[in-house]
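Worked example 2:
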Amino acid sequence: MINNHGVSLTEKPQINLGLEGVYFMESKICKVDGKAGKLYYYGYDIGELAAASNFEEISYLLLYGELPTTKQMKDFSSALAEERNLDDRVINLIKGVPQETNPMHTLSAAMDLIGAYDKSAENTSDNESTSIRIISKIASVVAAIGSIRSSGKYTNPDPKLGHTANFLYMLNGEPKPKEVVKLADTMFLLHAEHSSNASTFSGIVTISTLSDIYSAVVSAINTLKGSLHGGADEAALKMIMSGVGKDPDKYIDGIISSGNRIMGFGHRVYKTYDPRAVIIKEQLKAAIRNTDDRVKKIADTAFMIEEAAIKRTGQKGIWPNVDFFSGPVYSYIGIEPELFTPVFALSRAPGWCSHIVEYLKNNRLIRPTVYYTGETGRPYKEINGR
């Protein structure tokens, strides 16, 4: 006997834990070549984009499928700038959250509230405009969370600044040097998209029910919160900082012998060096030439731990991923560890929105099948007889 999904009811089907190797849709947005260590956004190699493009341009590419003309880029940047302001009710929500609250909870609540006040949220006929609003406002929310946590103050956005420069301005209350803005912008670009990762899939599952885009993005935010996804860069930094001043070989051997993971190493898809990690490593090397001893010590430790770990795991296909060097770079930029995952979220917003909009064009409710292994026909007993 066969059920409606073509699965035999008498033979156990193949179970793909974590949905590994299961294709659920076609997409033109992103290609991850795990064997070759390549990453493409709409056919453009990530290395070329990181060297020549910027986060705003990549956001346009992900939403529209083509690189913008000069006029299109100007209009897009203006649209992002127009959406940066936050409603006082959103600011008050951020201020009212207890200091010890995980910032990802605050981000999720704030974006949900923004969606509640957006009268066009339920209108899926103009998804691109809603996506622009989300990309802009999520950056303002993350900056507000960081600024309010550190100083109790909220800094109004500056419409004259670009997206990344404005984020750093709102976060710190003052402009950052151009080289720091450029480094942060490259980080945002590298994190903007990565095919059907856990958070993107979560957003697609939500939108497949014909919910609204805000709800789908909030689902993605909450999925990103986990230490196996967005929280991995903070965990990797903690590991690196714990290794400062220690013999890297002995330190890595200790991690392995204790049965713990080397954070920032290994990837479900990449079986070679993550191409984003290659770029971030070079950016970090350049940045620490003119930085304080604290960040330089962290970076130098990361390089030594990386070398020691690769000797033990490289032949097994376990190499550094994007998270390994992200923490030291964010430390150089001046972003606190508890804000790493929210920053990941603002970076990934264009990718989330692009996949959500793409899926809606040929929507089908996502409803996987579970193979039941429990009992049937168990008799009910009254509570006094149990």
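The mean pLDDT is 93. The chain has two domains: 30-225+341-360, 232-333.
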